[in-house]
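Appendix B, record 7
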Amino acid sequence: MKISARSKMIKHVYQLHVQLLYVEPRIWRRLWVPDNLTLAGLDQVIQTAMGWSNSHLHEFEIDGQRYGMSLDEYPIEKPAKLDKDHRLSDVLGKNVKTFIYTYDFGDDWRHVVTFEQILKPDPELNTWSQCIEGQNACPPEDVGGVSGYMDFVETVLDPTHEEHKAMRKWFGGPFDPQSFDVNAVNIALREVED
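Structure tokens (predicted):
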């Protein structure tokens, strides 16, 4: 097997646990990501692993610093640093054990990302981003945040609910809140490039 130049640059592989906050049952993914991944790249990995469509803004809050996309049209007092300019190896440091990833500022999906361990890079095993396990389906986009999602699940799982047909039509068919396919996620992750 030929070892890519990118694989040679990897010093560590981080194992991260990503959990969507405030939703029961828990929705989470365990990821392996190379240390040379940018935060913009990590956004793509989390989006793909969780099942989001990356159609809204996002932001990381790591060790008191915000990282995100350029928002020139939304001037704020302390803008976020550009996530595309910062690599995981530069921002995680020795003291960072958890950080927050927020997606869709309207629905306000907050994820706690826990740094679990450092792995030795092996070009045949783990030098690309991958999901090694997870649980439960991601909420649909634009469902209305945590409370909207809980109402949606109750409605789509109850065929006698007066809004059942309308919600199934809005979603595009049946929804199984317990579904998760790690193989499908990893196939999709192979398409994600930093």
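Remarks on this record: The two ends are 22 Å apart (CA to CA). The CA atoms of residues 28 and 135 lie 6 Å apart.
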